[in-house]
Amino acid sequence: MTNPGGPEKTLRGPPEKVEKVEWCCIMWRFRPIVLIGALWATLAARRVRRELRSKGIQARAPRPPRLGRRAGLGVTGALSRLSPTCLERALVLQAWLASQGIMRDVVIGVPPEGMKLQPAHAWVDGTDTVSPAHYLELHRLPPVLPG
After folding, report:
1. CA nearest to 38, candidates 88, 92, 77
2. Domain contains 35
3. Where are the beta strands (DSSP E) in 81-146?
4. Where does the chain show beta strands of DSSP type E?
5. Phi and psi of 7, rounded to 5°?
6. DSSP 120
7. Is 87 a residue whose pLDDT tops 90?
8. Which of 13, 59, 88, 122 is paired with 128 by a 20 to 30 Å CA distance?
9. Measured between alpha carbons, how far is 41 from 93 in angstroms, rounded to an integer?
10. Does the structure show a pLDDT above 70 at 7?
11. Domain limits for position 87
12. What percent of the chain stands above pLDDT 90?
């Protein structure tokens, strides 16, 4: 198959089969439930950012919609592509885990040598293996129980 004004393309198999395979791959990767999880995480991170400015440490992520665990792929994917602070990320992830029945605290810590070389850091307890070893715990934020 040639493309006028462009390089030559070759298709392996009939065009309808190639399109069907591509569509199946796209739908497998972007299942609606995963996209809904990503959308919730994006909106939750924005809301947490606003609430941290106005309420400080009392800020909380909104309650996630009732989705299965597979939507967690969208949540973690969105958080990795956004640029939330560690506290924003931890609060959103904590809310998601709580909606799945996994109750974890957000831990806020500082480096042992003080904050001259590194800033404070926040993480969800039990999800980060590096942070507990490199930071002294200052404060814990328990999850808000869904209700």
Report:
1. 77
2. yes
3. 106-110, 121-124, 136-141
4. 106-110, 121-124, 136-141
5. -70, 160
6. -
7. yes
8. 59
9. 8
10. no
11. 15-141
12. 48
Burial class (CB in 10 A: 0-12, 13-18, 19+), 115: exposed
Into how many domains does the chain fold?
A: 1
CB 68 within 8 A of CB 106: no
DSSP lists the bridge partners of residue 121 as 109
Task: Count the Cβ atoms, other than its own, within 10 Å of residue 135.
Answer: 20
CB 89 within 8 A of CB 79: yes
Structure tokens at 81: 């592509």
d(CA 99, CA 116) in angstroms, rounded, equals 37
Strands 121-124 and 136-141: unpaired
Residue 111 identity:
P
Coil/strand/helix, residue 117: coil
pLDDT per residue as tens digits for the range 29-69: 568 888 889 999 999 999 999 999 999 989 999 999 888 88
> Rounded to an integer, what distance in angstroms lies between the CA atom of residue 23 and that of residue 32?
14
Residue 146 maps to a domain: no
In this structure, the chain runs to a length of 147
The reply to whether 104 falls in a domain is yes
Cα four-point dihedral sign 51, 52, 58, 63: positive
